[in-house]
Design goal:
The complex is a heterodimer of chains A (553) and B (319).
Chain A: H1 2-5, E1 14-25, E2 33-45, E3 50-54, H2 61-67, E4 77-85, E5 88-89, H3 94-101, E6 106-109, H4 113-116, H5 123-127, H6 129-133, H7 139-152, H8 158-161, H9 171-184, E7 189-193, H10 201-218, E8 221-226, H11 229-235, E9 238-243, E10 246-252, H12 253-258, H13 263-269, E11 287-296, E12 301-311, E13 316-320, H14 327-335, E14 342-347, E15 350-351, H15 361-366, E16 367-370, H16 384-396, H17 400-413, H18 430-443, E17 448-452, H19 460-477, E18 480-485, H20 488-494, E19 497-502, E20 505-511, H21 512-515, H22 522-530, H23 538-545
Chain B: H1 3-33, H2 38-43, H3 49-59, H4 65-77, H5 91-126, H6 131-145, H7 148-162, H8 178-212, H9 215-222, H10 227-235, H11 240-256, H12 259-264, H13 270-279, H14 283-310, H15 313-316
The chains are: A alpha/beta (553), B mainly alpha (319).
Chain lengths: 553, 319
């Protein structure tokens, strides 16, 4: 690259020193105040190296990553320190310099490629835009480059892929197209912001492998942001652990995952080791689904084919599968939201009506649900006390102090003090919100709770806490869980039996220890082998030993 | 063009035709409810009952209402709008010239106001919350808030009387060159532009600002595009549907709502024609004008719907 010729190539590509980032928050009823989001973070990146930035949400990892382009999302500003890129401090260069840096020296790969692509324009147009904008090459040359990148990243029909619109390709393909977009202008640095978090495990491994290959072949440097230490261990040379906007630990990948020095890092490394002994099934099942076939669009799109399941009191049945495998549809059928075309559901010895509207109040009470997005499952204008108290009023006709006492009891059960009763959902953290949803489900004294991806939106440590809470509550209340998830690590730590779903069918079903014992069928094998492990070189081994291609592509 | 789009477009057009039929029923019923009938109007208050009866029989006014409705509708569909009571002239032929004049005025007002409104909207987004944005919004709102007769007379006084740049009376007649016509309608076009500008401009600004929150706008910013490039290339194409909607509403206003402006500038268009005949209680003319206005309104709204459908890439290029 000509523009680099003049500079010293051995010099560091990126040098961030004492970075301080602030934002102004506007708490209701108080004067606006500045809050510090990132404080005193320093890092250095050589050409062609990959640095993983890891931490929980709110740790400031995306903010640090974007600072390499001197970009502050949503009014965030860099108020201290230096960001030296290719030998100059870009925070002091003004808008013109920034436009030269962005898209040319540093490119960005967003978490949700589906949102980051303009729906109104063809992929090729968007992939080559930065290269054309910065006059790095002609349109024809940029398109040739893009087609080459599509091919390298394993996209289908690379010659015509660019003629499509974003909605015409799958999520995994879009994520790769976004990587191609970042690589097309041949930048010195790419910021990957959780590029595989929104993908299924089986797709994630493909995308991860193609990102890793692309980094190696083009010798571009990268900042790889994620909350998943196992993922970052596969691609990064160095890792920085961030918490509350400060550096916790910064070192080589091997050292961080094998010999972590800080307590917090050790916690991150050891996540997902909840000891759980499988309980044997006994007696009649609380819920028995028999031969469920369900479809959308008046029978046109069959999403469940002849699915049968048993759930016993006090036990957890995990339903695993990729998006589109029909797991959530199964929950909709059991709750009565989608009456099945065929099959029946027996609950506590009685036949459940297929339709929600014709179910008795006790059926509704004994079958509760917890959702993935705790945020949207609560009315933002109601206090926690009102939210948890509602099922008490509705099912048990509790009022006044009796209700308040029960709410306090439930808050205690979910390990939150009774001071929370007067708070609004917006004042709670993600984990606390999910706890309130659990309390609301428990308030109805249910026999079965359907948990639909309840930990997917949470940070690993927080998710861990929620899982432990659910297990403890199961002991106390003897409630059964139908646990829908795509995360196999979660499944291992909480389930008593497992149903693996693939394209609307249950392909493997039985007690946990049997399901997780080889020999596996091809799909279960694929699922299990796709879960990132905190081992160096895991990715390469997994790619080599795979028997079946992922369904997402 | 793909199948779902064609289906949706066909549906909209069918809906529009149904809507127009419904409007024609309403207009017909409305004029039936009014006291007095055509025979009474023609013969006047002093007519004998016998004469009234004879005329009613001759004109078919004693037939049941639905027969008269279909007779009227059949006439409308074949281009026969009946004759005006006050002058005895054929409505269709006098309406044609008037409609053409109104469309001419609306066309030039649209040519000036739509690009201006969208351009100002884009500028307001580019310099959002700054001085330029506030200036544009403020002036736009002020021009809309002033009633058109006020701005109209203001322009007549300053531009026509004092400066003598343009005529104060917008008379047009056959045989005028295009230049003469344009000079004649310059003032009404200005007034109409001032009236509709702010609405379209504010809507453009709001629609684009809404899109500016999207993740793909951030992507564009991180590619190093300039603010104006981001707005025109990435935000605008996704804001077309709401903008077209409000543009079409204003176009409809330019045709249907010009009554006041036409009267002020004595412009021989539909509006003035309508006002004249309302004063004379000439029911067939009012019916005809109502139907034409309704047709314009419905057509423009269908166009807006169709543009919204066609501008959606998900419908244009299904999976």
């Amino acid at each position: 690259m000509a523009r680099l010729a003049a500079k010293d190539k051995s010099a560091r590509l990126l040098d961030i020193r004492g970075l301080r980032i602030e934002a102004t928050s506007y708490p209701p009823g108080e004067p606006p105040r500045d809050i510090v989001i990132v404080d005193g973070v320093s890092l250095a990146l050589e050409r062609g190296k990959v640095l993983g930035l890891i931490g929980e949400s709110g740790a400031g990892k995306s903010t640090v990553g974007l600072s390499s382009m001197s970009y502050g999302r949503g009014g965030v500003r860099i108020t201290g320190g230096e960001v030296v890129l290719n030998g100059r401090d870009i925070t002091k260069g003004g808008a013109r310099l920034l436009r030269q840096v962005r898209g040319r020296e540093v490119c960005y790969v967003a978490q949700s490629a589906a949102a980051a692509f303009n729906p109104a324009r063809k992929l090729m147009d968007q992939v080559t835009e930065a290269a054309r904008q910065h006059r790095i090459c002609s349109r024809a040359e940029a398109e040739k480059r893009a087609v080459g990148l599509f091919r390298k990243l394993g996209l289908p029909n690379p010659d015509t892929f660019g003629d499509r619109f974003p909605h015409q390709v799958s999520g995994g393909q879009l994520q790769r197209a976004m990587t191609a977009m970042a690589l097309c202008s041949e930048p010195d640095l790419i910021v990957f912001d959780e590029p595989t978090t929104a993908l299924d495990v089986t797709t994630q491994i493909d995308v991860l492998a193609s990102i890793k290959d692309a980094i190696r072949d083009t010798n571009v440097a990268a900042l790889y942001i994620t909350h998943d230490l196992a993922v970052v261990a596969q691609v990064a040379d160095d890792i920085m652990v961030l918490r509350h906007g400060k550096t916790v630990e910064y070192g080589e990948t091997r050292q961080i995952i094998k010999e972590p020095r800080e307590d917090y890092t050790r916690q991150l490394v050891s996540v997902h080791h909840i000891p759980h002994r499988q309980k044997p099934a006994s007696g009649a099942p609380i819920l028995a689904a028999r031969g469920i076939t369900a479809a959308y669009g008046g029978g046109q799109v069959k999403v469940l084919k002849n699915v049968s399941l048993d759930i016993h009191l006090g036990q957890t049945v995990a339903v695993v599968g990729e998006s589109g495998s029909g797991k959530s549809t199964l929950a909709r059928v059991i709750t009565g939201l989608l009456p099945p075309m065929e099959g029946s559901i027996e609950f506590d010895g009685r036949q459940l009506s297929p339709r929600l509207a014709s179910r008795k109040r006790d059926d509704l009470r004994e079958l509760q649900m917890i959702y993935q997005m705790a945020d949207t499952a609560m009315n933002p204008r109601q206090t926690v006390g009102t939210i948890i108290g509602r099922p008490l009023e509705f099912y048990f006709n509790m009022r006044g102090s009796e209700r308040d006492r029960r709410v306090a009891e439930l808050l205690d059960k979910i390990e939150m003090g009774k001071g929370f009763a007067d708070r609004y959902p917006a004042e709670l953290s993600g984990g606390q919100k999910q706890r309130v949803c659990i309390a609301r489900a428990l308030a109805a004294k249910p026999k079965l709770i359907i948990c639909d991806e309840v930990t997917s939106a949470l940070d690993p440590l927080v998710a861990d806490g929620i899982l432990k809470l659910l297990l403890a509550l199961q002991q106390e209340e003897n409630v059964a869980y139908l646990f829908i998830t795509h995360d196999l690590a979660t499944v291992k730590s909480i389930s008593d039996s497992i149903a693996v779903m693939y394209r609307g069918e249950v392909v493997r079903y039985g007690p946990r220890d049997e399901v997780l014992k080889p020999p596996f069928d091809a799909y279960t094998e694929l699922l299990l082998s796709s879960v990132p492990e905190m081992e160096l070189g895991w990715l390469e081994n997994a790619m080599k030993t795979r028997k079946m291609a992922s369904a997402g592509n | 063009m793909s199948l779902p789009v064609l289906k949706l477009v066909a549906q909209r057009i069918a809906m529009g035709i149904l809507l127009l039929l419904a409007v024609s029923v309403l207009i017909f019923v409305g004029t039936q409810i009014l006291p007095g009938d055509v025979a009474q109007s023609i013969l006047g208050q002093s007519a004998t009952p016998q004469a009234l009866e004879n005329l009613r029989r001759d004109m078919g006014l004693n037939d049941p209402a639905y027969i008269r409705y279909f007779r009227w509708l059949g006439g409308v569909l074949t281009g026969d709008l009946g004759t005006a009571l006050s002058s005895g002239q054929d409505i269709a032929s006098s309406l044609k010239g008037r409609l053409w004049n109104t469309l001419f005025l609306a066309f030039w007002a649209a040519i000036v106001s739509i690009p201006l409104a969208i351009g100002l909207g884009l500028l307001a987004v580019r310099y959002r919350n700054g001085f330029v944005d506030r200036l544009i919004s403020g002036l736009g709102l002020a021009s809309t808030s002033l009633p058109e007769f006020f701005t109209g007379y203001l322009l007549i006084y300053f531009v026509a009387v004092r400066l003598q740049w343009f005529p104060s009376v917008s008379t047009v007649f056959d045989g005028m060159t295009l230049g003469e016509r344009l000079s004649a309608i310059a003032l009404p076009v200005t007034v109409l532009t001032l009236v509709v500008l702010a609405h379209m401009m504010r809507m453009t600004r709001a629609a684009i600002l809404n899109v500016m929150q999207s993740a793909y706008v951030e992507t564009a910013e991180l590619k190093g595009l300039t603010p104006l490039q981001i707005i025109t290339r990435h935000a605008f194409p996704n804001a077309v549907a709401p903008i077209v909607n409000v543009v079409m509403l204003n176009l409809a206003f330019l045709v249907v709502g010009v009554v006041v402006v036409e009267v002020i500038f004595v412009y021989p268009g539909m509006g003035q024609y309508l006002v004249d005949h309302v004063a004379k209680r000439d029911v067939p003319v009012v019916q005809a004008c109502g139907l034409v206005f309704a047709a314009v309104y419905v057509t423009l709204n269908i166009v807006a719907d169709i543009v919204a459908i066609v501008s959606n890439p998900r419908l244009r290029h299904p999976k």
